[in-house]
Description:
Layout: H1 2-14, H2 17-35, E1 67-69, H3 85-89, E2 95-106, E3 109-122, H4 131-135, E4 141-143, E5 158-159, H5 161-166
Antiparallel strand pairs: 1-4, 2-3, 3-5
Bound molecules: iron/sulfur cluster (2 copies).
Amino acid sequence: xxxxxxxxxxxxxxxxxxxxxxxxxxxxxxxxxxxxxxxxxxxxxxxxxxxxxxxxxxxxxxxxxxxxxxxxxxxxxxxxxxxxxxxxxxxxxxxxxxxxxxxxxxxxxxxxxxxxxxxxxxxxxxxxxxxxxxxxxxxxxxxxxxxxxxxxxxxxxxxxxxxxxxxxxxxxxxx
Length: 175
Ligand code: SF4
Ligand code: SF4
Protein backbone atom coordinates (compact mmCIF):
# COMPACT_ATOMS: atom_id res chain seq x y z
CA UNK A 1 0.00 0.00 0.00
CA UNK A 2 2.76 2.45 0.99
CA UNK A 3 4.72 1.36 -2.10
CA UNK A 4 1.70 2.20 -4.31
CA UNK A 5 1.36 5.57 -2.61
CA UNK A 6 4.99 6.42 -3.16
CA UNK A 7 4.73 5.42 -6.85
CA UNK A 8 1.68 7.73 -7.13
CA UNK A 9 3.58 10.59 -5.56
CA UNK A 10 6.56 10.03 -7.89
CA UNK A 11 4.25 10.03 -10.91
CA UNK A 12 2.59 13.25 -9.71
CA UNK A 13 5.98 14.89 -9.47
CA UNK A 14 7.17 13.46 -12.76
CA UNK A 15 4.18 14.72 -14.72
CA UNK A 16 4.06 18.06 -12.80
CA UNK A 17 0.44 17.43 -11.82
CA UNK A 18 0.39 20.07 -9.03
CA UNK A 19 1.99 22.67 -11.28
CA UNK A 20 -0.54 22.01 -14.03
CA UNK A 21 -3.41 22.24 -11.52
CA UNK A 22 -2.10 25.62 -10.31
CA UNK A 23 -1.76 26.91 -13.87
CA UNK A 24 -5.31 25.78 -14.60
CA UNK A 25 -6.60 27.89 -11.68
CA UNK A 26 -4.64 30.92 -12.95
CA UNK A 27 -5.94 30.46 -16.49
CA UNK A 28 -9.50 30.05 -15.27
CA UNK A 29 -9.34 33.38 -13.38
CA UNK A 30 -7.59 35.15 -16.28
CA UNK A 31 -10.23 33.93 -18.72
CA UNK A 32 -12.95 35.24 -16.42
CA UNK A 33 -11.21 38.65 -16.34
CA UNK A 34 -11.25 38.75 -20.16
CA UNK A 35 -14.90 37.75 -20.40
CA UNK A 36 -16.16 39.98 -17.54
CA UNK A 37 -13.92 43.12 -17.47
CA UNK A 38 -14.48 45.96 -15.01
CA UNK A 39 -16.65 48.85 -16.22
CA UNK A 40 -14.76 50.61 -19.01
CA UNK A 41 -11.57 48.64 -18.35
CA UNK A 42 -9.37 47.23 -21.05
CA UNK A 43 -10.26 43.50 -21.07
CA UNK A 44 -6.62 42.63 -21.75
CA UNK A 45 -5.63 43.99 -18.35
CA UNK A 46 -6.04 41.54 -15.55
CA UNK A 47 -8.42 42.74 -12.86
CA UNK A 48 -6.21 41.11 -10.26
CA UNK A 49 -3.22 43.44 -10.70
CA UNK A 50 -3.46 46.97 -9.33
CA UNK A 51 -1.85 49.35 -11.83
CA UNK A 52 -0.77 51.75 -9.05
CA UNK A 53 0.67 54.39 -9.27
CA UNK A 54 -0.40 54.85 -12.90
CA UNK A 55 -3.97 54.16 -11.85
CA UNK A 56 -5.02 55.56 -8.48
CA UNK A 57 -7.15 53.16 -6.47
CA UNK A 58 -10.67 54.12 -5.47
CA UNK A 59 -10.43 55.01 -1.80
CA UNK A 60 -13.53 54.38 0.34
CA UNK A 61 -15.36 57.55 1.32
CA UNK A 62 -14.82 56.95 5.02
CA UNK A 63 -11.08 56.33 4.70
CA UNK A 64 -9.04 58.21 7.31
CA UNK A 65 -5.77 59.35 5.79
CA UNK A 66 -3.55 62.43 5.72
CA UNK A 67 -4.73 65.13 8.15
CA UNK A 68 -5.74 68.56 6.88
CA UNK A 69 -6.55 71.76 8.69
CA UNK A 70 -9.15 73.54 6.60
CA UNK A 71 -9.40 77.29 6.27
CA UNK A 72 -12.54 79.28 5.54
CA UNK A 73 -12.79 79.17 1.70
CA UNK A 74 -14.24 82.72 1.59
CA UNK A 75 -11.82 84.55 3.87
CA UNK A 76 -8.84 82.18 3.84
CA UNK A 77 -8.70 82.45 7.63
CA UNK A 78 -8.25 79.44 9.85
CA UNK A 79 -11.45 77.75 10.99
CA UNK A 80 -9.59 76.35 13.98
CA UNK A 81 -10.56 78.11 17.18
CA UNK A 82 -7.63 76.62 19.12
CA UNK A 83 -10.10 75.00 21.52
CA UNK A 84 -7.64 72.10 22.05
CA UNK A 85 -10.40 69.45 21.99
CA UNK A 86 -8.62 67.39 19.31
CA UNK A 87 -5.45 67.27 21.41
CA UNK A 88 -7.40 66.27 24.53
CA UNK A 89 -9.34 63.43 22.89
CA UNK A 90 -6.32 61.98 21.08
CA UNK A 91 -5.51 58.69 22.83
CA UNK A 92 -1.84 58.77 21.80
CA UNK A 93 -1.15 62.46 22.34
CA UNK A 94 0.10 63.36 18.90
CA UNK A 95 -1.52 66.81 18.55
CA UNK A 96 -0.20 70.03 20.07
CA UNK A 97 -2.19 73.24 19.75
CA UNK A 98 -1.07 76.61 21.02
CA UNK A 99 -2.81 79.94 20.93
CA UNK A 100 -2.46 83.62 21.68
CA UNK A 101 -5.02 86.00 23.05
CA UNK A 102 -5.90 88.80 20.62
CA UNK A 103 -8.00 91.88 21.18
CA UNK A 104 -10.65 92.92 18.68
CA UNK A 105 -13.29 95.60 18.46
CA UNK A 106 -16.95 94.70 18.63
CA UNK A 107 -18.68 98.06 18.14
CA UNK A 108 -17.73 100.14 21.11
CA UNK A 109 -16.37 97.24 23.10
CA UNK A 110 -12.90 95.74 23.00
CA UNK A 111 -13.05 91.99 23.37
CA UNK A 112 -10.49 89.21 23.49
CA UNK A 113 -10.43 85.94 21.60
CA UNK A 114 -8.15 82.96 21.23
CA UNK A 115 -6.17 82.83 17.99
CA UNK A 116 -4.36 79.75 16.76
CA UNK A 117 -0.59 80.19 16.67
CA UNK A 118 0.90 76.72 16.15
CA UNK A 119 -0.54 73.32 15.35
CA UNK A 120 1.67 70.24 15.35
CA UNK A 121 0.48 66.80 14.24
CA UNK A 122 2.80 63.80 14.49
CA UNK A 123 1.54 61.48 11.75
CA UNK A 124 4.14 58.82 12.65
CA UNK A 125 2.33 57.97 15.90
CA UNK A 126 -1.23 58.64 14.76
CA UNK A 127 -3.39 55.51 14.55
CA UNK A 128 -6.04 57.23 12.40
CA UNK A 129 -8.85 56.42 14.80
CA UNK A 130 -10.69 59.61 13.76
CA UNK A 131 -11.51 60.82 17.29
CA UNK A 132 -9.91 64.23 16.69
CA UNK A 133 -11.88 64.75 13.48
CA UNK A 134 -15.15 63.56 15.00
CA UNK A 135 -14.84 65.89 18.01
CA UNK A 136 -13.67 69.06 16.24
CA UNK A 137 -16.48 71.59 16.86
CA UNK A 138 -15.77 73.58 13.70
CA UNK A 139 -15.13 70.51 11.48
CA UNK A 140 -11.87 72.11 10.34
CA UNK A 141 -9.69 69.12 11.18
CA UNK A 142 -10.14 66.48 8.54
CA UNK A 143 -8.57 63.09 7.89
CA UNK A 144 -8.59 63.09 4.11
CA UNK A 145 -8.62 60.23 1.63
CA UNK A 146 -4.96 60.77 0.77
CA UNK A 147 -3.00 57.68 1.70
CA UNK A 148 0.51 58.33 0.35
CA UNK A 149 2.21 59.20 3.62
CA UNK A 150 5.58 57.53 3.06
CA UNK A 151 8.64 59.79 3.47
CA UNK A 152 12.43 59.37 3.57
CA UNK A 153 12.94 60.38 7.18
CA UNK A 154 10.90 60.31 10.37
CA UNK A 155 11.31 64.09 10.67
CA UNK A 156 9.02 64.51 7.66
CA UNK A 157 6.22 62.81 9.54
CA UNK A 158 5.76 65.65 12.02
CA UNK A 159 3.54 68.20 10.30
CA UNK A 160 3.32 71.84 11.29
CA UNK A 161 0.41 74.19 10.73
CA UNK A 162 1.61 75.26 7.27
CA UNK A 163 1.88 71.66 6.09
CA UNK A 164 -1.50 70.80 7.57
CA UNK A 165 -3.17 73.76 5.86
CA UNK A 166 -1.49 73.09 2.51
CA UNK A 167 -2.32 69.39 2.56
CA UNK A 168 -0.39 66.52 1.08
CA UNK A 169 1.23 66.92 -2.33
CA UNK A 170 -0.41 64.35 -4.62
CA UNK A 171 1.84 63.25 -7.50
CA UNK A 172 -0.04 62.32 -10.66
CA UNK A 173 1.75 59.73 -12.77
CA UNK A 174 1.11 59.58 -16.51
CA UNK A 175 0.38 56.28 -18.23
S1 SF4 B 1 -6.74 60.10 14.39
FE1 SF4 B 1 -6.78 59.36 16.53
S2 SF4 B 1 -4.64 58.95 16.99
FE2 SF4 B 1 -4.63 60.24 15.16
S3 SF4 B 1 -4.48 62.32 15.94
FE3 SF4 B 1 -6.66 61.89 15.69
S4 SF4 B 1 -7.32 61.16 17.70
FE4 SF4 B 1 -5.08 61.03 17.66
S1 SF4 C 1 -10.75 70.53 17.80
FE1 SF4 C 1 -10.83 71.59 15.84
S2 SF4 C 1 -11.11 73.75 16.39
FE2 SF4 C 1 -10.42 72.69 18.25
S3 SF4 C 1 -8.17 72.93 18.22
FE3 SF4 C 1 -8.62 71.00 17.23
S4 SF4 C 1 -8.74 71.48 15.04
FE4 SF4 C 1 -8.91 73.40 16.17
